[in-house]
Design brief:
This protein has 13 helices and twelve strands. With 428 residues, the protein is α/β, with parallel strands linked by helices. It folds into two domains: 162 residues, Alpha-Beta Complex (Aspartate Aminotransferase, domain 1), CATH 3.90.1150.10; 244 residues, Aspartate Aminotransferase, domain 2. The chain has a seven-stranded mixed β-sheet with strand order 2-8-7-6-5-3-4, sandwiched between helices. α11 crosses α13. The longest helix is centred in the C-terminal third of the chain and has 30 residues. The two termini are 23 Å apart. The site of pyridoxal-5'-phosphate has 13 residues, from α4.
């Protein structure tokens, strides 16, 4: 039974019935926060070992560098090796940073604005009259905010389940004002999609009007699988090298959702030329990052296999939550033709699409029942979803009973808002 096929009278009857359920939820006085993708308490507990003093024993790196003191701007060797394995780059192609990869991204773009990218014949971006940036949608609000704040005109390009609409990207980048693109290649936030190798190759090889075009490749979820193992994927830096554009991309990751968000370590990977340029700027900005934390993380996580073993424990906690969301959506809304949702194999989010024009109403309705979802529109540049249909679901933080209750409430709100929209259209 698709709602769109129902007559007005049947819809009105169903709507009354859903409002009864809605009102009973409303009277429960709930207060659930589903807004941000944070690990839950038991996920954090997986890394409590980090407090063990044995991970800091000797306070020195494998190359005898003193971690308690200033120095070693690019990171201690064991942390570089660990993060290089995670990003799939060489140890000469990485800088290990502080507690936030988002901070590395912000700083890098500010440097490009003030000092340029280091590309011969190109000016600092701030000197350009017009700056444009491609934002894949739905996407990560904090990416969009950085480029919005720096004065770029943001251009939305849809994701298609296996990466961006590449025909559209290839057309847009002919414009020399388009300086770059944000991307989350694996388990993208919020769709959970994995970019295909073919699209990665096209991003690496496309002709760009700007000589200093840059791909900000945020591999935040590269090891955040939910089932057996992380998806295999062509490395973006590898692809850029193969295409003869080695300096096009910067890769980012962190241990935020591996150990402790806000208290982990981050990394940026790029061609040796780009890393050299980055270090020449960084040396003016800081003497070094937190090497004590780098040592602790490198010894705790050990190597890529150690990270994967640790992430398997996260997956065991998270998979039941993702499945619970999927099962409730399928049971309550399957076949009604009013909601599409993603079924990711990794990452932190499920992305849902309501009928056009319903997402803000759904979020507002859920709020009336005490359930807060990420504001509709947040996944689009300027917080404007032209279809008003996308909502990001973050299943990781709440305990499962709370999550199930929140999603059941969401389903009632989706039914109500869809029926109201369909009735509105009947009346026209
Ligand atoms: C795609 C993406 N990148 C970056 C971050 C933040 O990373 P960090 O804690 O390393 O700054 C998040 C956090 O939710 C994210 O979803």
């Amino acid at each position: 039974m698709q709602y769109k096929d129902l007559d007005k009278k049947t819809l009105k009857g169903l709507l009354d019935a859903e409002y009864k359920i809605f009102n009973s939820y409303k009277n429960l006085g709930l207060s659930y926060d589903m807004t941000r993708g944070k690990p839950c308490r038991i996920q954090l507990d997986l890394s409590n070992e980090l407090e063990n003093q044995k991970y800091l024993k000797g306070f020195s790196s494998i190359s005898d560098q003193e971690v308690r003191n200033y120095g070693v701007l690019d990171g201690i060797p064991e942390a570089k090796k660990l993060m290089a394995e995670m990003l799939g780059v060489g140890t000469e192609e990485i800088v290990v940073g502080g507690n936030s990869s988002l901070n590395l991204m912000y700083d890098l773009l500010v440097r490009f604005m003030l000092f340029g990218t280091g590309t011969e014949g190109c000016r600092p971006w701030v000197k350009e009259e017009k700056l444009k940036w491609i934002c894949l949608v739905p996407g990560y609000d904090r990416h969009f905010l950085i480029t919005e704040k720096l004065g770029f005109e943001l251009i939305a390009v849809p994701l298609q389940g296996d990466g961006p609409d590449m025909d559209m990207v290839e057309e847009l980048v002919k414009d020399p004002c388009v300086k770059g693109i944000w991307m989350i290649p694996k388990y993208s936030n919020p769709t959970g999609e994995v970019f295909s190798d073919e699209k990665i190759r096209r991003l690496a090889a496309m002709e760009t009007g700007a000589k200093d075009f840059r791909i900000m490749c945020d591999d935040a979820y590269t090891v955040h699988f939910l089932r057996e193992a992380p998806a295999k994927q062509l490395n973006m830096l590898e692809a850029c090298k193969e295409a003869g554009n080695p300096d096009r991309v910067f890769l980012f990751c962190s241990t935020s959702k591996i150990t402790f968000p806000g208290s982990g370590i981050s990394a940026v990977g790029a061609s040796e030329k780009n890393i050299k340029y980055l270090l020449s700027c960084l040396t003016v900005q800081t003497i070094c990052y937190d090497k004590v934390n780098q040592l602790r993380h490198a010894r705790f996580l050990k190597d890529y296999d150690g990270i994967i073993a640790h992430m398997k424990k996260h997956a065991e906690i998270l998979l039941p939550k993702f499945e619970a969301v999927n099962n409730i959506l399928a049971k309550e809304l399957g076949g009604l033709g009013i909601l599409k949702w993603t079924k990711p194999d990794g990452g932190y989010f499920i992305s849902i699409d309501t009928l056009p024009g319903c997402a803000s109403a759904v979020v507002a309705k859920a709020k009336e029942c005490g359930v807060k979802f990420t504001p509709a529109g947040a996944t689009f540049p300027y917080r404007q979803d032209p279809n008003d249909s996308n909502i990001r679901i973050a299943p990781t933080l709440p305990p499962i009973q709370e999550l199930e209750a929140a999603i059941n409430i969401l389903c009632v709100c989706v039914k109500i808002c869809s029926m109201e929209k369909l009735l509105e259209n009947c009346e026209e």
